[in-house]
Every structure is written in C-alpha cells, then in structure tokens.
Amino acid sequence: MSAVWAAARAAIRRRRLQTFVIALVALLCTATVVVSLALLDATSAPFDRVFAQQRGAHAVATYDAARVSAEQLAAARTGATEVAGPFGQTVVETEAAGPIGAMLGPLTVVGRADPAGEVDRLDVWRGRWPSAPGEITLNAPPDDEASFARGPMAHLTSLSGNGTALTVVGWAYSVSHSADGWVTPEQMTAWRPAATQVLYRFAGDVSTRDAVGQRLTGVTTGLPGGALLAAEPYQVVKEEAAETAGVYLPFLGAFGVLGVLVAVIIVGNVVSGAVVSGFRHIGVLKSLGFTPRQVVAVYLTMVTVPATAGAILGTVLGTLGAGPLLEDTFRGLGYGQDTGVQSWVWAAGLLGVPALVLLAALLPASRARRLSAAEAISAGSAPRRGRALRVQRILGGTRLPRSISLGLGLPFARPGRTALTMASLLLGVTTVTFATGLADTLIATSRLDAAAGGDVGVRPAPDGMAGVRTTQRDDREIEALLRGLPGVAKVGASAGRTVPVAGQSSPVHVDFIRGDVAAMGYEAQLLKGRWLAGPDEVVASAKLINKRGLAVGDSLILELEGVRTTVTIVGETVQSLPGPGDSLFASWRELQRVDPSDFYFQVELAEGADVQAFMESARAADPGLTLWDNTDVGELTVVVTGISTVLALLLSTVAALGVLNTVALNVQDRRRDLGMLKSIGMTPRQVLAMLVTSMAALGVAGGLLGIPFGMAAHRLVIPLAADAAKVTLPDYVLRVWDPATLALMVLSGVLIAILGALLPARSAAQLSIARVLHNE
Amino acid sequence: MTTETVVRLDDVRKEYGETAALDGVSLTIRRGEAVAVMGPSGCGKSTLLNMIAGLDRPTSGEVTVHGERLDAMNETRLALFRRHHLGMIFQFFNLLDDLSALDNVALAAQLTGSSATTARRRALELFDELGIAGRRDVYPAALSGGERQRVAVARALMNRPALLLADEPTGALDSRAGEQVMDLLIDLNQIGQTLLIVTHDERLAHRCASRLVELADGRVAAESALDRV
Predict the structure, then answer these.
(1) How far B227 CA sits from the closest chain A CA (Å)?
(2) What are A566-576's pLDDT values in tens digits?
(3) By the 8 A CB rule, do A25 and A267 touch?
(4) Which of the two ends of chain A, N or C, has the fewest CB atoms closer than 10 A to its terminal CB?
C-alpha cells in the first residue's frame, strides 16, 4: 500500500464527520444535478426524444387507393430507411354518448395489425390493441389512472362508426399523429377504405419541411400521377408540441440553473473547508517526509473517495427520482412513454461532481503544497490577526446577550467560508422564493380559471344518437331548471358557433352568452377595455388576440347565418369559455339550426355547496344532461407546483448541509475557544445559541439578498411561460408578494440556516471541556 | 485564614476505561489557603483539577465546592456555578484571539448578565491592579506571554471567585514572566483569594502555596505544609 493511500485512508477514518458530510453533500448535489439536468434535457427536446423512441414518421403519406395498389406502395422505398404500411385508411363518422361524444366528430382510422413496426411504434398505454373486427383503439396522450378515471374518456367505452358498433378496447399514443384510431386490417377491409397510409423515415437531412418534401418526392417518383393525396411532414406536429412543452421550459430551466449553482457552491465550500481545516495535518505529513505532491495527493484522495461514493449513490437516487418526475411532467403532453434519464445526464453526475470536488480541493491543496511544514502546522492553529476584530469590539459594546453578540461576530472570522455559506443560503432562499411565487401565481391563475369556469359544466346530449337519452327541455327551460336546484348561486348560458370572419382565412369561435357569464369571473379578469354592452360589441380572449394580432378597438365583420355583422372588440379577457380558448364573447342572440349540444351552461354553486350532490340532483332532474366537475386544479398547476416543491426542498436541504458543514468546521477550528468559554461559565444552551446565531445571521442576510433574485426569476420566468402558451396573464397574478410573504421568505433563510447549524451546534454544546483543554 | 471549607473531595474515583486516573482521593481546601498539587505526569493532577472545576465528573465519590455538590449538577448548573464561583487560568492562557485584552476579561462578567459598560469598568480596575492597563486594547496575538497570563488572571478574577484554579500557570512562560505571575498569585492569596495550583514546578509551589498535596498513581501520596520562599 502506498504511503499516500495509507495516509489518506487514515485521514478518512479519523475525520468521520467530515467524510460523511462530503459524501452526503456529494450525494445530494449529484441527485440535484441529475434531476436538474434530466429536466433541462427533457424540456430542451421532449418531442425529439419521444419521436426517437417511437421512431416517429418523418412523413405521414395518404395515397388514393383507387390509383395506386398496396404492392406498388410497398415497392416504392427510394430514399426511405424504414417504411410502415401500406395500411388501409378511412374517415369514420362517429357517434358516442357522454360529453366527449359531442366533440368526437369524424375520426381518421387506420387498419393496423399491431402497434409495433419500423415506424410509428405506438405506446399502448391503456387497454390493448384491437384483435378482432368491431374493436377500436383510440389515439390520445397517456394519462395516469386517476386523471383518466376523472376525465370524459373513461366514459367512452363504445362508439358507432360508419354503421358499425365499435368497442373501445384501448388507448394508444402516436407522437406522429398518424391516426385518431386504429382497427384491425379485417375491419378496415370491410369498410372498403378509399385511402392508404404509408409512414416513412428518411436518411439524410430532414430538418425542414422542404427537405422532407424532397425525400418524399424520391419515394413517390414512379407512382401513378395523383396517387399521393396528402403528406404531412413531422414538423407540423413538432411545432404544435413546442407550444405546449414551451410552457414548462422556463420553469424547469430556472430550477436546473439554480440546482447546478447550489451544487457548485456547496461542494466548493465543503471541500475547501476540509482542506483548510487540515493544514496542520498537512504540516505533520510534510515533516514526516511527504513530498508536496504526495501531500496534495493525500488530500485529493481524502476528499475524492467520499465524494465519489456520494456521487454514485446520488446518481442512482437522482435517476430514480427524475424518472417518475419526468414521466409525470410529460405524460400529460404525450411524451411520457419510456421517459428516462439520458446516459449523458448520469455520466455528468457520476463524473462531474467528483471532478468538481477534485477541482475545489485542488485550489486549497495547492496552497498547502506551497507552505513549508512549519507554516502549514501554524496555519492550523495560529491566531488569525486583523480579522473580525472591529466587528467583535462593536458587538461587545451592544446590549445583546454576550452569547448572541459573539455568535454574530463569528462569521467575520472566516470571510471566505462565510461568503460561500451565504451564497448557498442565498440560492436556497432564491429557490424557495421563486417556488413560492410560482405556486402563488399558479394558484391565483387556477382560482381565476375556477372562478371563470364555474363549478359544474352542463351540456345537453346531442339529438339523434342511438342509445342516448336526450333532454326534452329547451335552453331556457334547462337554465330555469338549473337555477331552481338547491345550492346554485349563478348560472351562465352560451350558444357556441364557429363563424367566418371577412378578410381572415380561418373562422372564429363565438360564444353568444346570457345569464351570469360575465359575473362568473370573465368580466373580473379583463386585461384591457371593458365588458360588452350591446349586440355590436364583443370581448376577445387573450389567446385569440395574440394569435391573430388583434387589439381592443378593432372591428371584425362576422358572417353570421348569411348576414354580415360588424362588431367591435371592446375588451380583452384572460380566457374564454371552456373550449379551444381562442374565442369571442358576444351578447345572446337566437340562432337558427341549433343542436341541443351547442348550448353550454356553467353553474357556480353557493359557498359550501357539495358539487357531487348538485350533479346527482341535476342528473336526476334531467337525465338528458351531461354534467362534469370543473373544480379540479389545472394539470399545469399540479405538475409545476409538484416539481418546484421537490426541487426547492432538495436545494434547501443541500443549502442546510452547507451550513452544517460550515458550523462543523467552525467548531473544529474553535474547539479551544469553546472549551475556554465553557470553562468560564458559558452554558451549553449559550454555546448552542452562539453557534446557531452565527448562521441565523447569515440566514437573514441570505434571505434578504436571495429574495430579490427569487422575485426577479419569478418576474422573468412566468411571462416567458405565458408567452409560450400564447396567453396574457393579468398583472395581479404576478403581484404575489406582500410583506407577510416576504417576511416568511427571510424566515425560510433563517430556518435553513438554523436547521443546518443545529446538529453541529448541539454537538459543540456537549463538548467535553476537560478533553478539549487537555488536548491543548 | 478562616476554617470555612471551600473544596471537599470525599473518596473521589475517576476511571477512563480500565485505568483509574484518581483512586479514592479525599481532600479539603479551606478559605484563604493556597494549595499546590504536584506529582509526575499521569498521576492525576489535571483530572483532579477538572473534578474541582466541574469540567469532568467523578466515577464515584463526592466533590463539594463552595458548599455545592458538583457531582450532582447538570451541565447548565455546572456552567452557572463556574461562572459565579470559580476562576481558571491555564498554561496556554486560552484567550479569544478575536477579542481585545479588555474584551476578553469583560466577557466573563458579561456572561453573568453585566452590561458591557459595567463589565469593562470592572475589567479596567483589574487591569490597573495587575499592571497591564496600557495593554487593554491590544489583541492577544500582540501580547507577551506574561501579559497574556495576566489578562487570563484578570479574566479569572472578574467575578470575584471563591476559588482560583491554576493549571501550570507558568508552564508556557519564560522565567521573568513566570516570576511576575508567581508574584501576582502570592499577592492575590495574601488578600484572601483561595488558590489551587496544579504544577510540575517545585519553585512555583514553594513560592506560592501554603500547603502541598503530592499525587502518585491517582492517590494522595503525601500532604505537607509549606513555608513560602
């Protein structure tokens, strides 16, 4: 065994607390780094990841079955590396019961024998793949059991398409959006499909729509003219996905950056503290004949061994923790399939943190290398001149209890160590502040949603559906029925209609409203302008305004039931009624050719009324009504609040460990002083108070400095996320800071500092005076 | 000298593992006495001092100082007892490097609840008495060994202790500084301060103490009255 290893091993064994702290900090920092990098990585390319996992189609091509045969399509592969199909494809006019039935509309259905294959490997996340005619598996982003059970999809167990009764046997997800549903090839053949679907993956450049178009030309060359009906490059779905995932990117990016920063500071503090406190030991090694290089090697080994052990465990912990977090985060977006931590992420944790430790140790170890043996020995115990003296003198003259004033002066004795500890506390408080602001804003937004969405949504079942009970009441009677039920406070009614707009390529959805709609939160959440006051006035949702480049004051010419009507946008509101989100509110008018399911009612219940009891009584009063609970907190709120809580806790724990390490080092440095103080009558409680005060003071400073950073991050990140979602948030949801919350944030810094300091301070309070002074 | 007992040890035994550092020590010190404890290294001198100072607890036996049973006190009561009734000086002074000489001394009074002003006033009196008034604003690192020990003595006397304990008070000093400290201890004893000095230094014992207790293997080997040189 080499002398270096023997000395390093002995040092590791002797300094158990320090070794433990280094290992624990490395473990938590690695876990934080792995989780943060995994989240950053996932947010940077969630679509690409799932697209690669599913071997998504670069192009989804639809051919005319009458013009090109399956054999011809199977042979046409020029430039394609992988091909799936040809599959029969048809559009199925569906009918189904329940709230989702009205929204299903025509479905593009493909006949596929299995969900696997070279291209578009589908994630069958619930149920199974169809195995017999009469069965269908529908396309939807994966959802967890609880959410699925709550949502309308759980009620969709059967539907009728093209005259065939279809049993929904499962749910699958195609990131390529290759179809709305899949049946067996036999079922498809029975429908005599007019189209054929082929899915392609190409080699070479597929980065742009044009590039994909060129590759597709290579495949279709030689096929009969007009055979290709349509082809969708993957960029279409990727751009849609970017809009959704982009909401998460600013949140997770902010936490990722904070996590890595905290890890760097804590590791640097712990390791350099360990080396500095070992200067005397370094002197002894040198006096024994260790060369400067060997001394450095001993110290690097001493810190790298526990750091590596911690990094290995931290990587495992981070990988295990990040997996479910990523899956929860991206499952709702459809990217949850096999979401895992990438190998480069755990490699970064496994190698990066020990490398960081090595680097942090190298600087102080190099300083020790340059010292002579005598200097190194004295550096460990010699009085430190000129530091903190003025501060101690001032504090000594105050009316504070002496244990407190001594504690307040302690941080000035080691300014470098204090600066690093305060930096970690500052980042801890920044994280807590940011997470709190984020949660408060999301809760405020969620309340806004809840207030505007009402407690219960009600829609009459559509006419003419087999097996579905329809209401006998008209819209006025339904409104009256709802108003008469116990516990009802407000009822709003609307009739939705998609209306062409003169001069614009796509129509706009207009909700013609009456009743209490305005009073149910929509008027209260006006961002600009005022609520509509006449038939020629409309209020637009922020999403519509942002999407179409409109502004309050603009006029629109609506072509409503053959009549051109000019309306003026008099207000911009945060959101529209449940639906696509980019809608106009207009005052009520009696529309022609209205299906009962075009009417939508939302009900706000009185304070304390039971939502489920109301829904049961409404169903009993009219079984032709479909009702759903709108009181659920939004998915985004749950996911972002969950992630921010986990990361804030993790980073606060790491910051507290940084404090623990600092106090442990301070106690080690000041054992003699502590022994002396106890010998002249300082009680254990006073020792505890002194050491805890020294860190609580840093907690206050870290809190005061960290709050502006956390607030700035909040101000920066929320609007970025809102921009990504193409929504405008009212300013008041960003104004979540009040004096009480800010005081709590400062307290969070103090709490982190106290929790970190408590353990070593308690151990210092129990220090045996006889032993400490005897060791001198 | 009165007959009032300041320290009484009854059959005190202290074990560290299987080794007995003190093995049935009984000892009495009366008010105004100056007692020197001597003996070879490892005989139990420091352990004895630690027992009397309440810095360590006996395995068995009773330690009574100023009428209070130290072996029955918890840590907090021991700290309060030390604060009010005991003064200690150490071989290596044990001054706080971050505090000036004056603040090191004032600290002992501030721990008892005195205001900074009152504590500093009392400390200045002691600085005058001990002849170090000109060094009050100097930090320990800039003081000579003798000056540091005088500051340590001033700190020990700050709360007018019933008993002053000195552990090798001249051990880290040159002979001149050592002489000054000895003179100081003699002066203190002559004005009624009870002293217990643990030392290897026969000269210190014979100059400062009125009684010598010799320890060997954790037992009191001999006790004798001394005529101060």
Answers:
(1) 31
(2) 889 999 988 77
(3) yes
(4) N
Most A CBs within 10 Å, among B89, B94, B157, B160, to test the A interface: B94
Looking at the predicted structure, is the pLDDT value of residue A337 above 50?
no
Domains (range + CATH), chain B: 5-225 (3.40.50.300)
Statement to judge: residues A370 and A412 lie in one domain: no
> Which ranges of A105-167 does DSSP label H, i.e. alpha helix?
145-150
Task: For tokens 């473990």, name the residue.
Answer: A27
Same domain, A483 and A557: yes
Domain that holds residue A68: 57-233
Note whether A306 and A26 are within 8 A (CB): yes
Q: Closest Cα to residue A688, out of A700, A678, A698, A680?
A: A678
What is the model's pLDDT at position B23?
93
DSSP per position, A28-47: HHHHHHHHHHHHHHHHHSHH
Nearest to B111 among A402, A768, A773 (CB): A402
Residue A68, token pair as written in the block: 């090109």
The verdict on A308 and A393 lying in the same domain is no
**φ, ψ at A538 (rounded to 5°):** -135, 160
In a domain? residue A227: yes
Q: Are residues A45 and A116 in the same domain?
A: no
Q: Which residues have C-beta within 8 Å of that of residue A532, sequence separation ≥ 6?
A: A538, A539, A570, A571, A585, A586, A587
Domain contains A625: yes
Secondary structure of residue A317 in the 3-state scheme:
helix
Among residues A573, A605, A630, which one ends one of the domains? A630
What is the nearest CA distance from B115 to chain A, expressed in angstroms?
A: 7
Domain count, chain A: 4
- Record: contact B56-A768, CB cut-off 8 A: yes
Which band of pLDDT confidence, cut at 50, 70 and 90, is reported for residue A776?
very low
Q: Do the chains contact at A684 and B76, CB–CB below 8 Å?
A: yes
CA distance A747 to A752: 8
Sequence length of chain B is 229
Residues of chain A contacting residue B76, judged by C-beta atoms under 8 Å apart: 683-685
Residue ending a domain, among A382, A413, A434, is A382
Residues of A with CB under 8 A from a CB of B: 383-385, 387-389, 392-393, 396-399, 402-403, 409, 413, 672-673, 675-686, 766, 768-770, 773-774, 776
- The shortest C-alpha distance from B102 to chain A (Å) reads 10
Please name every residue paired with B216 in a beta bridge, in sequence order, or none if there are none.
B219
Interface size A-B, in CB pairs within 8 Å, comes to 104
pLDDT tens for each residue of A677-701: 888 888 899 999 999 999 999 999 9
Which own/partner pairs from A225-229 qualify as long-range (CB within 8 Å, at least 24 positions apart)? A225/A67, A226/A64, A226/A67, A227/A63, A227/A64, A227/A67, A227/A68, A228/A61, A228/A62, A228/A63, A228/A64, A229/A62, A229/A63, A229/A64, A229/A195
